[in-house]
Amino acid sequence: MTQNWVTFLVALLTAVTGLAGAIGGQLVSARRAINLSTLERQARLEDHDREERRTAYARFLVATRLVGQAVQTADPVAREPALSALREAAAYVELAGPEGIEGLVSRVTDAAERWVTVARREGPTSAGTRSAHDDYEAALLETRARMRIALGG
Q: Engineering a disulfide at 92: which of 14, 27, 56, 85 sits with its beta carbon 3.0 to 4.6 angstroms away?
């Protein structure tokens, strides 16, 4: 026959082990929930950043098309709003874009300003204007390619 203190000790160890198991299970479960919450938050932030970047890029590309239309118009007053829209859109791209996009965007805006200036001075169909347009298109093509890479595609 076992003594009472042994029975009491076994009961106590069983209770302590059960309690430790329950607490340990809750801790593991809570840690998993925290990790899952952190991952979900990071995914939402990445989605938000990607959407912000996509919007900035779209705004910039729309502004680049306005520059082309402004150069072709006979009204020189229409050219400055197009350049202003491009500069504003470029600022959004610089804020939302990846490291190094600033140089490419700056190249596009500089080429656009040169194209508009040459077209104003020499006319929209001159050889100098075509050359400035080619420089603008080359800068824009490189920037567009970098934008696609930054968006993951």
A: 56
